[in-house]
């Protein structure tokens, strides 16, 4: 059962300052956390009113915080209790103890690497290590300051680094990679994304072929005995 807010006299209007354009065209397959897929390159186009003055000095930082809206889940409302995939969907945690997109205000926060700032008719920030759906609305950007924000010894409950799966490509899939002139970064994007095991916890069937939509292509794969096989590529229609 989804929830909605009770009527309140206090509210604020938040408007996007821009949008992010990423390889993840659907929710299935999106990196579960920022930084887990370094090959996930994207860019943020700021709205025209945000000129070069707004990003003056930002290139002095290696990483930035991107605050955004989980726009694809707004219609679903929010849940007070969440079943984190990390726990196999067997245990519930409070929404504020998780990073679930099903939140009261549907706001998210990602730490991404700032690769380049492009100046033109509008400011474009090139970033990597993203975990954001294509065309996600961005509502704020801040620089990451390690000496203040990095807490490597902090307790993080159940959210520990997971073991990666091995990924290999079938010969037909490798031939399709070459046929479609997809570069080494796309190859790494697929490998890094699949190594995280993007399957929902309730769909762990060894004989099932899954489809992940990255850029303009569908990646067909299956997982058996903790091994991922890329079985094919096809143009997304």
TrEMBL record:
Pfam families, sorted: TrmO_C, TrmO_N
Keywords: Methyltransferase, S-adenosyl-L-methionine, Transferase
Any one of the GO BP annotations: methylation
CDD domains reported for this sequence: UPF0066 (cd09281)
Keyword Transferase: yes
Highest taxon, organism lineage: Bacteria
GO molecular function: methyltransferase activity
Domain TsaA-like: 14-153
Family, as annotated: Belongs to the tRNA methyltransferase O family.
PANTHER family named among the record's database cross-references: TRNA (ADENINE(37)-N6)-METHYLTRANSFERASE (PTHR12818)
Protein's name according to its UniProt entry: tRNA (N6-threonylcarbamoyladenosine(37)-N6)-methyltransferase TrmO
Organism: Snodgrassella alvi
């Amino acid at each position: 059962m989804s929830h909605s807010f009770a009527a309140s006299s206090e509210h604020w209007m938040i408007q996007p300052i821009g949008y992010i354009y990423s390889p993840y065209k659907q929710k299935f397959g999106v990196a579960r956390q920022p930084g887990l897929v370094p090959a996930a390159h994207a860019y943020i186009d700021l709205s025209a009113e945000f000129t070069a003055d707004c990003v003056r000095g930002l290139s002095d930082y290696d990483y930035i915080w991107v605050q955004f809206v989980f726009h694809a889940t707004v219609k679903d409302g929010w849940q007070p209790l969440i079943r984190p995939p990390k726990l196999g969907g067997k245990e519930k945690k409070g929404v504020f103890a998780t990073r679930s997109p099903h939140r009261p205000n549907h706001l998210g926060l990602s730490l991404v690497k700032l690769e380049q700032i492009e100046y033109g008719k509008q400011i474009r920030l090139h970033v990597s290590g993203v975990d954001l759906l294509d065309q996600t609305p961005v509502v704020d950007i801040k620089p990451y300051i390690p000496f203040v924000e990095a807490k490597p010894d902090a307790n993080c409950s159940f959210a520990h680094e997971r073991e990666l799966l091995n990924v290999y490509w079938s010969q037909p899939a490798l031939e399709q990679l070459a046929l479609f002139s997809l570069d080494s970064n796309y190859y790494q994007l697929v490998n890094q994304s699949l190594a995280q095991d993007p399957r929902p916890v309730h769909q762990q069937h060894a004989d099932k072929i899954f489809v992940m939509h990255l850029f303009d292509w569908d990646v067909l794969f299956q997982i058996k005995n903790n091994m991922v096989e890329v079985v094919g590529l096809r143009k997304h229609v």
